[in-house]
Structure formats: structure tokens, C-alpha cells
From TrEMBL:
Species for this entry: Rhodanobacter glycinis
Recorded topology in the membrane: Multi-pass membrane protein
Main localization of the protein described in the UniProt heading: membrane
Residue ranges of every copy of the MacB-like periplasmic core domain listed in the record: 69-275
Name of the protein this chain belongs to: Putative ABC transport system permease protein
């Protein structure tokens, strides 16, 4: 019963420690490391733990194989976890990058995306009269009615087809997106079947160089420019809305209306005016909020998949660490017993085994994080968002690396706790007789 209660206490200690650890910022971890170092330098028990740890670390060369299992296993866990989280973070940053507080998007009521929305010419005219809209030098409201269609195109260096997002826009579209810059060629001319393409779309699909012609819908279109935006728009092809509508038989309709507000505070009266108009059945939101909603679903799925895969791999890494550290404790039984016999307490033995495991775990975590950062940071990929391909970049930042290191150290803590307690409990006479 006593042994059972002790083990139960260890389990509770482990759970509490892990809960606290998951909430700990990096500065807290540094503070803990400093306190541990001071304890090992300034106290007798701490110096004993330091001595035992030094002896254990000195035997790593004889246990290079088993130690490598811990390091490589944890490096794999951290690498996979951070890579998946970086994918979700990069995708979310790409979608949210096109959002602002001083621009609004208007969709048909009940629509959650542009693909589900349809508005008539009269709807667009009514929206243009709403208060709070900014105007250009000529007094014209900065409003762009836009139409989005999925255009089937051949992918670059492949025989497979993908769906590019073709966006038909009005003249004001450029003023509504100040971060969008033409980097090659020029803007398309209204009334002509001309395209400007995002850099992401150009990397993803074939025949999108300046001067190329590509068949979209029923007609051939000429690429006249390339733009950079650093957001989801970079995955799109842009053209005159009326030409897109004519080619795809959409009449004079639009799916969304993008509006430049006179200020961020003008959104509330703008939205209220649209809601008060009985002829309009529309919903407005800031583009920042709209793109946050669009990215939330898929980014959440990617995070969940990353955590599930990480947990499964972490369980395997924990068992690997347990096996290796139990074997290490068994191999050092005489050494530990001798230390206990000359006056070393159980506490320093526990700390030494835990430190050894967690240092190996930290090495594995750093290795996995460095590999992921070198391979995936800025790596360009594409995924489906709705019915079209969105090109985005993996984003490996300090916060994700710290998350990976926390997982590594947590695995080391779990994998070292029970072998450490076994080492401290090892009867001196029994250990000396075993070897």
C-alpha cells in the first residue's frame, strides 16, 4: 500500500508539473534554470547532485547508443510538431495578411464566404451611397465590386490541374489594397482580356509569365503584369470584373463589395446604415475580421492534427527514454550504491538522473527545432481554401521553437522521473550484491 501511495503521489506530481510547465513562458524556464544552478553551487545537497550528475554524464560515451535513442526520438517529435504548427501558422498569417480595420467587405446575408454570395447591380449602387466610405480626389467612393471564379489551370512542372482563383475587380481595387505592388509589367486595362497575376500563383501554375497567353473560361487572356502582396491575394489572378463576368456568364453581378472606410471608427455607422436599408439583405464585416474567420477553421484542424501526431510520437519517445534510463540506472547500480554508502542522499541521485535525461531531451529538442527551422522556415506550399489553391509559406518563429523545446523537456521529465526514483530507492546492500 505504501508503495502504491508513493507511486500515486509521483503521478500527481508529474501531472501538476506538466500543467504548470505548459503555461510557463521562456523567461520562467530561464529563471528555474538559474535557481537550480544556484542551488547546485551554494548548498551541500546541490553540490552532491552536481557531482553525481558529472559522473553520470561522464559515462555517456559508454552509453552512446541508448542515449542517441532518446535524442533522436525527441528530435523527431519536436520536428514533426513544429513543422505542422508552422504550416498552420503560415497559412493563417497568409489569409489574415490581407485584412485591415479600415476596409470592409459586404456579402449577401447569410453567406460565410465570397463563393456563397451573389449581389446585383442595384445592391452595389446602394452600398456605394452608405455613410463612412472614403472618396478619391475626384469625389468618387472607393468601392470595388468583385467577382471570384475558380479557373482550372495546369500546375507548373506537372501534368496535374489545379484551381486558380480568378478575381474580377473594379478600378478602385488597387487603392483598397495599398500593400499590393506591381513588380513586373503593368496593370490590366479595363475592357480588355488582360490579367495581372500574384507571385504565388505564378510559382504554382504554368504559363503565367508576362506576355504569356492562357485560356480561362471560353476565351484566351494575356498576362500583362505580376504583383506582390504578401497575403492570400498573391495566389490569385486579377482582371476587369466586367470581362470576367462576360466570359463566365455572370451578367452584371458581383459576389462581394470591398469598401475603403474614412477611418476604422466609421465601420459601425457604415454597417448600421446597411442593416437599416430594407432593400438590402447584406452583411458587412471588416476585412481583418473576415479573413480571421476564413483562416480559423483550417488552421485549427492543422493544429489539432499536429498535436495528435505529436502526442502519439511523444508517447513512443517517453517509453524509449524510460527504457534507456532504467537500463542506465541498472548499469550504474554499484556506482549509485557506493555513493549512497559514503553519505550521498537520495535527493541528489534523483536530481542527477533527471538532469541527465532532461539534458539529453533538450539536445534532441534543439536538434529537431534547428532542422525544422533550416528546412521549413519560409518554405512555400499550397493548399485548398474553398475551391481554389492558396500559396503560403511555413512560418517557424521563436514561439513555435519554444513550444517544441517545452515538449522535449516534458518528455525528458516524464522519461526520467521513475528511473530517478528507482535509483534513489535502490537498497545499498542489494545493489552491491547484484554486481
Amino acid at each position: 500500500m505504501k508503495k502504491f501511495l508513493i507511486n500515486l503521489g509521483l503521478l500527481l506530481l508529474m501531472v501538476v508539473a506538466l500543467v504548470i510547465w505548459t503555461k510557463l513562458p521562456w523567461i520562467g524556464a530561464v529563471a528555474l534554470a538559474v535557481l537550480l544552478a544556484l542551488w547546485m553551487l551554494l548548498t551541500r545537497t546541490g553540490r552532491q547532485a552536481s557531482s553525481v550528475t558529472a559522473v553520470g554524464m561522464g559515462t555517456l560515451r559508454q552509453r552512446i547508443g541508448s542515449s542517441s535513442v532518446i535524442v533522436i526520438g525527441i528530435a523527431g517529435v519536436v520536428g514533426v510538431l513544429v513543422a505542422l504548427l508552422a504550416m498552420g501558422q503560415g497559412f493563417q498569417a497568409t489569409l489574415q495578411g490581407g485584412g485591415r480595420d479600415d476596409t470592409a467587405i459586404v456579402l449577401r446575408g447569410g453567406s460565410v464566404s465570397e463563393a456563397q454570395s451573389v449581389m446585383t447591380h442595384d445592391d452595389v449602387n446602394a452600398i456605394e451611397q452608405a455613410p463612412g466610405i472614403a472618396r478619391d480626389a475626384a469625389g468618387k467612393p472607393l468601392v470595388s465590386a468583385e467577382l471570384v471564379v475558380a479557373a482550372s489551370m495546369r500546375k507548373k512542372n506537372s501534368d496535374d490541374d489545379g484551381n486558380a482563383q480568378l478575381r474580377g475587380v473594379d478600378d478602385s481595387a488597387w487603392a483598397l489594397r495599398p500593400n499590393l505592388k506591381i513588380v513586373q509589367g503593368r496593370k490590366f486595362k479595363p475592357g480588355l482580356r488582360e490579367l495581372v497575376v500574384g507571385q504565388g500563383a505564378q510559382r504554382e501554375f504554368a504559363n503565367l509569365g508576362v506576355g504569356d497567353e492562357v485560356k480561362l473560361g471560353r476565351q484566351r487572356w494575356k498576362v500583362v503584369g505580376v504583383f506582390a502582396s504578401g497575403d492570400a491575394y498573391a495566389s490569385e489572378l486579377w482582371a476587369d470584373r466586367k470581362e470576367v463576368a462576360a466570359d463566365y456568364r455572370r451578367g452584371d453581378s458581383a459576389e462581394s463589395v470591398l469598401v475603403k472606410l474614412s477611418s476604422a471608427s466609421a465601420f459601425a455607422p457604415f454597417k448600421a446604415a446597411l442593416a437599416a436599408d430594407p432593400k438590402l439583405k447584406v452583411e458587412a464585416d471588416t476585412t481583418k475580421a473576415y479573413f480571421a474567420k476564413q483562416s480559423a477553421g483550417l488552421a485549427k484542424i492543422i493544429r489539432i492534427v499536429g498535436l495528435v501526431v505529436g502526442v502519439i510520437m511523444a508517447i513512443g519517445a517517453v517509453f524509449g527514454a524510460l527504457n534507456c534510463m532504467f537500463a542506465a540506472v541498472a548499469a550504474r547500480a554499484r556506482e549509485i550504491a557506493t555513493l549512497r554508502a559514503i553519505g550521498f542522499r537520495g535527493g541528489p541521485v534523483v536530481v542527477s538522473v533527471m538532469l541527465e535525461t532532461m539534458l539529453l531531451a533538450l539536445l534532441g529538442g534543439v536538434l529537431g527545432a534547428v532542422v525544422v527551422w533550416l528546412v521549413f522556415d519560409g518554405y512555400t506550399a499550397s493548399t485548398l481554401s474553398g475551391f481554389s489553391d492558396v500559396v503560403f509559406q511555413f512560418k517557424v518563429d521563436g514561439a513555435l521553437i519554444w513550444t517544441g523545446l517545452k515538449w522535449a523537456l516534458a518528455i525528458g521529465f516524464i522519461g526520467g522521473l521513475f528511473p530517478a526514483v528507482r535509483a534513489a530507492r535502490l537498497p545499498v546492500t542489494t545493489a552491491l550484491r547484484e554486481l
